[in-house]
From TrEMBL:
InterPro entries: TnsA-like. This is TnsA-like heteromeric transposase endonuclease subunit. It comes from the Bacteria. It comes from Streptomyces netropsis.
């Protein structure tokens, strides 16, 4: 209660309003009045833009964490969704969940963050996705104001840029096996036993059965964190060392 009281004493709470959909109707309320809304389940406040002739590509990503499709407006946003989907601390993701309204001293401003993320411990996280070389003055001001608003209600704020190419290549590959249909429990049990001690990916897979049947399950277990390998510094390969995640 003490932290909540401190938060409500923050002057920034009075500086921001949020516009969002509630029961199919768009409402606007003060930040102080809706800090506990489940924005990870909110409908997008605006359509996803598909610029004609542009390099961006809008679409829908099936999120294994939520079992729902989540919108994105660029490949960079899609990649961020993959990383959020694979994050074991993430329990929910909402795309463009609200308009943040404020006055910058000269005019009224508004900004729709790219994602609202709910974490396993109940915390909220607001994510804006933009490559560093595309953050102009207007975007920088919008991100700074969004961070102020998040700080006032104890949400995290992240401006996510371009991910490491090796990490992203590995996660794009594993995301192909994110759906539960890739899991066969009998094969998964054999793989967990095979990788109880670290061993090369191909060797452990061969020990669990026909690789054509085993590998999709193995990749699903790597995606879901049951099995672990180095996805950050080298591309996945037959000699990648794999082991079980202790305690999972």
């Amino acid at each position: 209660m003490g932290q909540l009281a401190d938060a409500y004493a923050d002057l920034d709470l009075g500086a921001f309003d949020l516009g969002f959909f509630e029961d199919g109707v768009q409402v606007r309320r003060s930040l102080a009045a809706c800090w506990d809304v489940s924005f990870e389940r909110a409908a997008p406040v605006r359509p996803f833009r598909r610029p004609k002739g542009g390099k961006s590509f809008a679409g829908w990503y099936f999120c294994a964490t939520t079992g729902e499709h989540i919108g994105y407006e660029s490949w960079l946003e899609r990649d961020r969704l993959i990383l959020l989907d694979a994050d074991l601390q993430v329990t929910g993701v909402g795309s463009q969940p609200f308009w943040l309204h404020w006055h910058d001293g000269q005019r009224r401003r508004r900004h729709a963050p790219d994602y609202f993320v709910r974490l396993m411990d109940g915390r909220g996280r607001v994510v804006d996705v933009r490559a560093a070389d595309r953050v102009d003055e207007a975007a920088a001001e919008a991100f700074a104001s969004t961070e102020r608003a998040c700080r006032a209600v104890d949400w995290e704020f992240v401006r996510a840029g371009v991910p490491d190419p090796v990490l992203m290549a590995n996660m794009r590959w594993l995301s192909r096996y994110r759906r539960r249909r890739c899991l066969r429990q009998d094969v998964a049990d054999r793989l967990v036993e095979a990788f109880s001690e670290p061993r090369p990916l191909r060797l452990g897979a061969a020990g669990a059965g026909d690789p054509l049947m085993v590998l999709p399950v193995l990749f699903h277990l790597l995606w879901s964190g049951v099995l672990v390998t180095d996805v950050a510094s080298r591309l996945l390969g037959s000699d990648s060392m794999v082991h079980t995640a202790r305690g999972r």
